[in-house]
Amino acid sequence: MNHLISIEDLERTDIERIVSQAERFAEVSDREIKTLPTLRGRMVLNLFYESSTRTRSSFELAAKRLSADVVNFAASGSSVEKGESLKDTVLTLSAHKPDAIVLRTPWAGAAELVSRWCSAAIVNAGDGKREHPTQALLDVYTLRRRLGAIDGASIWIVGDVAHSRVARSNILAFQRMGAKVTLAGPPTLIPRGIEQLGCDVRYTLDELDSADIVYALRMQNERMSETWVPSIREYAAWYQINGRRLSPHQILMHPGPVNRGVELSGEVVDSPQAVITAQVEAGVVVRMAVLYELLAGAREPRPVAAMAGSRAA
Amino acid sequence: MSATASAEPLIGGPQPPADLLLRDVHVLDPRAGIDARQDVRVRDGLIVELAEPGTLDLEHGKADAVSDGAEGGGIEELVDGAGRLRLLPAFFDPHVHLRTPGQEHKEDLASGTRAAAAGGFGAVIAMPNTDPVLDSAPLLRSLRDAAAREARVPVGFLPAITRGLAGEQLSEMAELRQEGALGFTDDGKPVHSAGMLRKALQYQRLCGGVLALHEEDPTLSRGGAMHEGAVSAALGIAGIPTIAESTMVARDAALAGYEDGRVHFQHLSCAASVDAVADAKARGWKVSAEVCPHHLLLTDEDVRGMDTSMKMHPPLATEADRLALIEGLRSGTIDCVATDHAPHARNEKEVPFEQAPMGSTGLETAFAALHTGLVLPGIIALSLLVQRMSAGAALFALPTPTIELGAPANLTLVDLDAVWVAGEHGWESRSENCCFAGRQLQGRVLMTIAAGAIAHRDRALAMVGA
Fold first, then answer.
1. Backbone dihedral angles phi then psi of residue A255, each to the nearest 5 degrees
2. What is the total count of domains within chain A?
3. Residue B145 sits at the chain A interface (C-beta within 8 Å)
4. What is the pTM of this model?
5. Which residue, B181, B178, B182, B184, is CA-closest to B201?
6. Tell me: the pLDDT tens digits for B370-418?
7. Quick check: is B340 catalytic?
8. Contact yes or no for A109 and B352 at CB 8 A
9. Which of B239, B249, B220, B343 is nearest to B300 (CA)?
């Protein structure tokens, strides 16, 4: 594996290998000295074009636990605000010879594009509304710790699917691991044609009880001003996961940060069925496993796939 | 009395008239009913002789003055077609962006018309979404002056329907017509207000001129960067539904019918729009339509790699839409091919897909791509393609390029067997954002004669027949 750009590029065995490695790192996390020398002398560059606290700090911690050097580059307050293009920023930062670039941008496909411009391993930490593959891997990890295998499990992803990169990565990852995915949400927020990814679509939660796992998505306030739904109140009335809708046999997940009282009621967030904190914990070890997968052993400089002016054939 | 155009509508640079003997070329002009090997003599830019192959000789006894690059001077150039090279009526493109004034880093009159000539086009119509917008008579006059100096093939201009393309106030259409406007368009944008388009249609009774319409309901397309469907859903890119185009085609056809006006629908992209045009034609409304090579050959599946050259307005739609467009072109519901040649600088396109501007270049690849993708597999006949490649002229009340005695030479010489890779030797266009770049194509334009002058001569021509 040269890069982690999309779950689409991963086979089930790749996912299992990364998750198993994360489990081994989790054992280390319980020790008094949590740091491993594995990536000593390697440099991980966090390049974030969107504000992010948990994903960025999770990557930073993961890199440090493996003894890598970490450089954080946030687009705000930088040359990007002076109009520097993504390409020039990447070429400039590449002069420092990072071994990996962790990239978050508001644009679909940006991680793939950057992988053509430099020789570093690219980790997609969110490209627009397209994908967030490490979130999906940590969700698979969390479920595996809780349930063992998820073959045949029914997973409902509920909420704003249209604007969710988490949803797109998780549809692919859960299906790779043998689960059956159902999408539920307001018809305005379920993209036309998404069922061709092999999932079912529901516009109500009437059949939610058939789910083994309920994965709620964050409902962003700005969607209201764009009139995707009439009001937060009506959204909550129809799609909120609460004590009345959540059955005792179900596991509840959420990528965070939670809007209590909107997509989740307070009582389900605090219930033992919720694994939301476990997901956050999984973030560090899974990202350690991803960096390990991409960087450990790869001492040779990577070939640059194609330089300026090239295009996909 | 209507204030019809008083200026010559097409205007090009001062190229010397051609003196040529095209010996044993396979002449194909479906309108003139010719499909046979012929000798064709062009003298002083006019077709003066059509004869049985091998019967005409160079005049002045200067048989040694063969293809030496010397133009004019009364020395006749010999091109030997060896019975194999096809001589076609020059193509006509009613939809190109020459980016002048204001965006000459993308294209200018010279480079854009060189690209046209290299693609076999004998004339083009330029769009007004320049900077400033072409919406006033003085600007049109200065552009036409520039074309008279720089253009390799004649150029016609469509100024804006509304000032600044803002959709709020009509441009001075009558004065623009007197200054040589072929018609009007807000291309790049729709005329969103039905009331505004209705006023333009009413005013058309005074000044004439086709209203060419970019159809898109912005309330449906807003924020979208590609066709709405399974691919956009998988990529997480906001989609543009086909109804953004087709509902506007239907609305504006009805407006044209009500006002008995003349409209031309630009770059149709979906099956529902073809249906809307067919319906309008069946009612006898005065509508016409064009389709671009990329919509006839590519679909949203080609966007999966997020190559920004695949990002254009309207977006590449589904296979079903593509097939409906081909059928529309075959049946005549769609009148002609147009390229919507839309050059952008490399730095503008070398960005993430959602940030990139819309548009692909197309002049240099149109014929070869359509020949490769539609004619060679037997989907449409070569004669139909040739007819549709030049049919745009008549839609704007211009003479159709024809191969007949006494006609001005508007000719394209092609080698249908030549295989090449698009872009392998660079481009005549100043920009390289071509959706067909890197594809292997069959069929190459060897020579273009526009308004009687040699506008393009391929470097391979010297070798052919040798």
1. -80, -10
2. 2
3. no
4. 0.93
5. B184
6. 999 999 999 999 999 999 999 999 999 999 999 999 999 999 999 999 9
7. yes
8. yes
9. B239
